[in-house]
Automatic annotation (TrEMBL), chains A, B:
InterPro entries: Aminotransferase_I/II_large, HTH_trans_reg/aminotransferase, PyrdxlP-dep_Trfase, PyrdxlP-dep_Trfase_major, PyrdxlP-dep_Trfase_small, Tscrpt_reg_HTH_GntR, WH-like_DNA-bd_sf, WH_DNA-bd_sf. Gene3D superfamilies: Aspartate Aminotransferase, domain 1, Type I PLP-dependent aspartate aminotransferase-like (Major domain), Winged helix-like DNA-binding domain superfamily/Winged helix DNA-binding domain. Residues 12-80 form the HTH gntR-type domain. It holds the Pfam family Aminotran_1_2. It comes from Malonomonas rubra DSM 5091. Keywords: DNA-binding, Pyridoxal phosphate, Transcription, Transcription regulation. This is Transcriptional regulator, GntR family. GO terms for molecular function: DNA binding; DNA-binding transcription factor activity; pyridoxal phosphate binding. In the C-terminal section; belongs to the class-I pyridoxal-phosphate-dependent aminotransferase family. It comes from the Bacteria.
């Protein structure tokens, strides 16, 4: 379409012309957030311009945050919202350990999360329709028949060997070379983190955590009589290493563990770069503080690239890597693991004391699924859905929430972190929305210091007209708070 | 055979004559420990004496501890050994709380318990050949198909409703009237006890336990930073209520929980009477000390009578009853429960923090087994085997161990507590027997105060020529220690 002469006439570089067309299609709504734009080759043919021109145009659109590149997958339209700041807000970091006591909010919210009558946008569960239920149950049947005697017997820590072999193999994709002997199976990822905290800390000790932080960690810290040291984190790159270093220096010797969700963080969706993972590992090693790394969302990248884990940079056994299949295969199977580095032996003992062993039948089934179930294929298909739905929900938030609302742009997982204008109280929004049958995770849950009053975490694993209407309702309720205040 | 005239000639009462014959058959070895003797009706016919005469004879043999009556089942030959004293030995009770630190022995033993090359007489596992493997796995298949979506989803605390309904129904047999809402499912009985300790105690608190005590409890107490207060217990009736009362008075306000295995205790095999269960509940209620009752062996009575639980006497919610199907159906399924009384809500929260939920598939299968699997029929058959084998092993110990050895005479379960002559060191015996491929549970594991040096716990769930030979070997090794010393 565009001829060389036209470009010269318009005095606009050709790539800008191309970028302008795509940008127009986005603004007009023809291309919607989450949509894939034509491939470079295809657009070059369509618009009769060189491949390099299209590349230049897409690169410009990336810089303007209208498109995003996903390795080996192509370019996609980004959500139209103003994004959250890419750096953590350091306006009031206390960087002092705090006793945790937030039982009331937690109890309140947990009770509602159990209520099947409410639309659950607050709990971080995967969409069960995307789980390979039949295949899993078939494997459960086959494997318990194949290993009949074993299936009813204790598979004492470190746990089922075949499962540990499969986990060790998959960990190669995250950059780790571990043997099955370096892994302990657990009843899910939370149990792995609990065992790590129990082995590393005694009451009164300080644990460094990200802020905002997955609220279960706060409850665990409270229950174990520990103190939380909140380190600011950004929705783009995760925990602030500068703040962590400062805090470790200031609380020298007191910090006994540091918990970080390195990939597609809950709640922020952040992804740490390899460079920062390496720095994190080195920093903690230098301060003799073990790292509890939670990688439960690591398999849910929106691109085809499986991110590395911090554990892959661990040379001294200082990193305890925790994960599970609860977000990808079957939360109800409760199968997880921990690669505990130099704490392997203590974790095995601690696991045995906690509940003797992880149940055998579900371990057998998951081992078989990882070996012969087409796990990679399954991941590709659910990642596509979560990519699309996360963009769709972010888009709906942009349309329905009060002006000034900002939302995270995760590169994996299925969670969105929404920052509303300051006057809005998310605990009040939680109460209001519960009245109309919707639950959300109010920001206050994610900090001991009363931060994130105007934030909520939403689950984008579900997307249908019902959920879309719920987002509209939430937006209306949030706006009504602004009108009153 | 015996005519009235003969009796008059011998001037011996007729019933003594009958008792003498049976006693002769036992001493001669025709009737062996665990054998059932002829029924009263049958013997009365055979010997042509009245029913009352046989009754009188059997009653005399019972008093002489040669026979034992099992309700609705008949009379059985008892083990020939000198029994352990029926009252606890109170020679050196300290009745002061002690810090627990016995990691070394525990680590040592636990590692060996994992070794499949060793004959395991030390670990308290049921015989897998007696487990209904095929039926369980069939139910696992059927139920996960029937509740497909549910099977992969979280069944958040309090856990699977159908399982809780079944447990509540079965608890009627133990004298408890509880609703499913008063039960939380767990990953086995140990987890139930852990959750109870976590909810009831904070570091530094004192826990009253039986002595000797199931060693995992000691490890748990150590791990949670608690102190253990050992209360003497007898192999017949269990914990000494007098000693417990004295200790509670002396440590007023410091004791925050009391753990008791009321039925077919591990390791002693003791069975508390209903009267003592009631007294125990009242005593602890008076002192405001919650009772953690472990009833894991309760379904394994050698008689047809299912004993009550202390929980059945609980009027205030002060008893937390813990149990599981690990000794009767499938240890590897890791399905247990806790009826937590007034601590129900806290236990639910604590369970969620520990590992979110108990795995769903195994809960579904066990619920179905309890509902339609013929659990009572299954129990009858395994109880018969354990009754016989426990007597057989006790008999073999009597034949092979050094003179002066005494052994418990449990009325249920499958464990034997063996007290050897004083000079014998069971940790040394443990080391010696490991050299020849046998592991035992040395007495030192069962106390923080270094007691039970000359005791071992043995598992009678397995009985075959191999195990019989192992008992001979153990006896020889024990005797060799006496010769050296």
């Amino acid at each position: 379409m565009l001829a060389q002469s036209e470009q010269q006439q318009s005095r606009q570089p050709l790539y800008e012309e191309v970028a302008g067309r795509i940008s127009f299609l986005i603004k007009q709504g023809t291309l919607r957030p989450g949509d894939r734009v034509p491939s470079i080759r295809k657009l070059s043919k369509q618009m009769q311009v060189s491949i390099n021109t299209v590349k230049e145009a897409y690169s410009q659109l990336e810089d303007r945050r209208l498109l995003e590149a996903r390795p080996q997958s192509g370019y996609y339209v980004r959500a139209r919202l103003p994004e959250l700041p890419t750096e953590p807000v350091l306006d009031r970091p206390t960087l002092s350990p705090a006793e945790v006591s937030m039982d009331n909010i937690y109890q309140l919210v947990m009770r509602d999360l159990l209520d099947p009558k409410l639309l659950q946008l607050g709990i971080a569960v995967p969409n069960p329709e995307l789980l390979p239920i039949e295949k899993l149950n078939r494997m459960l049947t086959r494997e318990t028949r194949r290993f009949a005697l074993q299936s009813v017997s204790y598979d004492l820590p470190p746990g089922n060997l075949r499962l540990r072999q499969q986990v060790a193999q998959r960990l190669l994709l995250s950059g780790c070379t571990l043997s099955p002997e370096q892994i302990v199976t657990t009843s899910g990822c939370v149990e792995a983190v609990v065992l790590a905290l129990q082995v590393l800390c005694k009451p009164g000790d300080v644990v460094a955590i990200e802020s905002p932080v997955y609220f279960n960690f706060l409850q665990l810290i409270e229950d174990l009589g520990l103190k939380a040291l909140e380190i600011p984190a950004s929705p783009r790159g995760g925990i602030s290493l500068e703040a962590l270093e400062f805090a470790l220096d200031r609380n020298r010797g007191e910090v006994k563990a540091c918990i970080v969700i390195t990939n597609f963080n809950n709640p922020l969706g952040s992804l740490m770069s390899d460079e920062n993972k390496l720095k994190l590992v080195q920093l903690l090693e230098r301060h003799k503080v073990p790292l509890i790394e939670d990688d439960i969302y690591g398999d849910l990248s929106f691109s085809d690239k499986r991110p590395s884990v911090a554990k892959s940079f661990d040379k001294t056994g200082n990193v305890l890597l925790c994960s599970s299949i609860s977000k990808t295969l079957a939360p109800g199977y409760r199968v997880g693991w921990i690669a505990a580095g130099r704490y392997q032996e203590k974790i095995e003992r601690s696991k045995m004391l906690a509940n003797v062993a992880t149940p055998t039948p579900t371990q057998l089934a998951i081992a078989e699924f990882l070996a012969n179930g087409g796990y990679e294929h399954h991941l590709r298909s659910i990642r596509r859905v979560y990519t699309r739905q996360t963009a769709q929900m972010a888009d709906a938030i942009g349309r329905c929430f009060p002006a000034g609302t900002r939302v995270s742009q995760p590169q994996g997982g299925f969670l969105l972190w929404v920052e509303m204008p300051e006057p809005i109280d998310s605990l009040k929004l939680y109460e209001q929305s519960k009245q109309v049958g919707i639950t959300i995770a109010p920001g206050q849950l994610f900090s001991v210091e009363g931060k994130y009053r105007n934030c909520v975490r939403l689950n984008a694993a579900f997307w249908d007209p019902c959920v879309e209407a719920a987002i509209e309702t939430l937006g209306r309720l949030a706006k009504s708070q602004l009108q009153i205040s």
